[in-house]
């Protein structure tokens, strides 16, 4: 550790004052804080006695993202090997998964940090650790077959338009990763939806790939034939409830496994990073809306209305979104009571978008971004309510 300290201390003069590399001071400080804990202390009150600084905060989120990240590598490799006719032994699957996922992660971090360094150098402020989370979240929301240049464009839009134009980390209105994902969805819909994007096909026998469906459970639900129940259609396609829960099916890299998202939720709640109010509120909103639509579905031909509410919970990316995206402390409300309402409305909107707008069968992405927009209003309402309860000065 002393060697690392001496190395940074010896090079600091080149990045401060009139040093030749003073424009790269934010990059130097970011590299230093990656190896060493921040050495800046408060010199005047008020003092906050809390060990959870921004670096540790982001580290906990990265830790909680490991279950869906590792499973995403395995699942992307498994689906690719299965469709391409390759062996599906563990080692082959993992190598194939790494070949698919890691380039997207490298592109996400590389391009994202380029924009972070550029804006930090121009504004002359330190580089924030916020991109450590955004850079990993973003590729986990993408289909495995997305082109790398589109991934670079998406993270650029998410970082620049979703965060930096508002002032950087801590000032953004929308979740940057979801902003980039939404941009790609609307700009390049054929590369972000449909049956052909959820499995990265190897260059081997194309006829094998043509014989295996890449339809997601959400797509199977939409395409349920007349006279057939949605559960029958899902089971015919091999999508049992247990398979949906564990997540071993084609989909975005990191959001197919409800189980992995559940593990991440437990970690984030125990370390005090994520709000259990938002997560439970989202689950309650989704289940109650699903049950209500089931009750009203007697005279409807909409297959989504008869889908059991628990299937809404494990299908698609709802579990991933409500755990990792909706709980973003910057774009979510800060007041405790309205967090319940915030999460509840995300669950409600997710079901309503899925049921009544077949163009967006996923739903959760639009629901979270829409509620991000209303977060300041929800905080304003609770603050006003709290102020009214105060005793007037006499």
Describe the 3D structure.
The chain has 394 residues and is mainly alpha-helical. The protein folds into two domains: 54-192; 216-249 and 257-379, no CATH class. 62% of the residues lie in helices and 0% in strands. The chain has helices spanning 2-11, 25-35, 54-84, 90-123, 130-140, 148-160, 176-187, 189-192, 206-210, 217-222, 230-236, 241-246, 258-270, 276-295, 309-314, 318-325, 336-356, 364-388. Helix 3 runs antiparallel to helix 13 (258-270). The longest helix is centred in the N-terminal third of the chain and has 34 residues, at 90-123. Residues 204-212 have low confidence and may be disordered.
Descriptive terms for the model:
394 residues; mainly alpha; globular
Gyration radius over CA: 23 Å
Give the DSSP E fraction (strand runs of 2 or more residues): under 5%
Structural class: mainly alpha
The count of DSSP E runs of length 2 or more, i.e. the number of strands, is 0
Query: What is the percent of helical residues?
Result: 55-70%
CA-to-CA gap between the ends?
59 Å
Note the total helix count.
Answer: 18
- Ranges with pLDDT <50 over ≥5 residues? 204-212
How would a textbook summarize the main sheet?
A: none
Report the principal-axis shape.
globular
Number of domains: 2
Instruction: Give the overall average pLDDT.
Output: 83
Taken in chain order, the helices and strands follow as: HHHHHHHHHHHHHHHHHH
């Amino acid at each position: 550790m002393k060697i690392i300290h001496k190395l940074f201390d010896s090079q600091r003069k080149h990045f401060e004052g009139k040093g030749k590399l003073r424009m790269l001071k934010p990059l130097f400080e970011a590299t230093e804080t990656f190896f060493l804990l921040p050495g800046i202390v408060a010199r005047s009150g008020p003092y906050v006695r809390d060990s959870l600084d921004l670096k540790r905060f982001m580290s906990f989120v990265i830790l909680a993202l490991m279950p869906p990240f590792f499973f995403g590598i395995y699942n992307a490799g498994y689906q690719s090997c299965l469709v391409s006719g390759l062996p599906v032994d563990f080692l082959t699957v993992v190598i194939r998964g790494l070949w698919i996922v890691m380039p997207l992660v490298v592109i996400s971090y590389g391009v994202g940090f380029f924009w972070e360094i550029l804006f930090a150098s121009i504004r002359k402020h330190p580089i924030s650790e916020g991109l450590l989370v955004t850079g990993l979240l973003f590729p986990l929301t993408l289909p495995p077959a997305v082109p790398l240049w589109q991934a670079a464009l998406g993270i650029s839009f998410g970082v620049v338009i979703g965060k930096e134009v508002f002032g950087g980390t801590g000032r953004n209105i929308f979740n940057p990763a979801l902003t980039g994902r939404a941009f790609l969805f609307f700009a390049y819909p054929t590369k972000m939806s449909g049956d052909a994007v959820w499995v990265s096909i190897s260059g081997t026998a194309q006829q094998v790939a043509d014989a295996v469906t890449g339809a997601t459970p959400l797509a199977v639900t939409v395409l349920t034939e007349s006279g057939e129940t949605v559960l029958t259609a899902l089971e015919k396609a091999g999508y049992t409830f247990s398979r949906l829960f564990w997540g071993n099916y084609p989909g975005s890299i990191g959001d197919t496994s409800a189980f992995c998202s559940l593990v991440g939720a437990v970690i984030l709640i125990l370390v005090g990073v994520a709000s259990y109010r938002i997560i439970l509120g989202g689950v309650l909103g989704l289940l109650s809306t699903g049950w209500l639509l089931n009750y009203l579905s007697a005279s409807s031909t909409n297959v989504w209305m008869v889908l059991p509410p628990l299937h809404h919970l494990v299908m698609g990316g709802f579990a991933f979104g409500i755990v990792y995206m909706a709980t973003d402390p910057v774009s979510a409300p800060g007041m405790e009571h309205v967090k319940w309402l915030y999460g509840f409305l995300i669950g409600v909107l997710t079901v309503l978008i899925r049921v009544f707008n077949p163009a967006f069968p996923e739903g959760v992405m639009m629901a979270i971004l829409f509620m991000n927009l209303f977060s300041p209003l929800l905080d304003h309402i609770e603050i006003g309510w709290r102020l009214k309860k105060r005793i007037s000065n006499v």
